[in-house]
Write a structure and sequence with these properties.
With 191 residues, the chain is an alpha/beta fold. The chain has one domain (2-80, 118-190): Rossmann fold (3-Layer(aba) Sandwich). It is built from 6 helices and 6 strands; from the N terminus they run βαβαβαααβαββ. It has helices at residues 29-39, 54-67, 90-96, 98-106, 119-136, 148-159, and strands at residues 2-8, 47-50, 71-73, 141-146, 176-182, 186-190. It has a 6-stranded mixed sheet. The chain starts with a strand and ends with a strand. 35% of the residues are buried.
Amino acid sequence: MTRIDFLRHGEPEGGNRYRGCGTDHPLSALGWRQMWAAVEGKPGWDAVVTSPMIRCQAFAETLAGSRGLPLEVMRDLREAGYGAWEGRAPEEISATEPEAYRALYADPLNCRPPGAEPLAAFTSRVTQAWGCVMEKYLGQHILLVSHAGTMRAILSHVLGAPMASQQRISLSYAAFFSLQQDAMKGIQIVL
């Protein structure tokens, strides 16, 4: 059996913003507390895999070090690029560009922010990384520290859901869930 526990990063300094792969802020004090609370009492892992973004990697390094676990940083697990919206708050964009803001959620495949990473390219990058994780860590229990977009892309892939449905999955800071694969049942979501 292979089990992958997913942990979204906690709140970064500066609060809720579009932080893709072009904007990175360290975790706030609250973000660190959120992440420690999310893993408290969780069973042991064989390794920790993380996005290279500081809001993920700093916690992953600290956790892996404190538990004596191997750590792998996977570049392709980073968040989608949000182009011109990088570093901006959703409230600001919805107030100044309401049509573009609504369009992103109505049609995330074709209505990306200017200069944003195409959703198809992002999803392909992330699902290839997911395949590498599943192959490399077959039969193990792994903690994967990443981003809401990364987690949504993997979930929609595993569920066979249309790419455009990714924006319909809401994941709070330090959200935690698991995917488990065995030979008889395939991949299942474990909440």
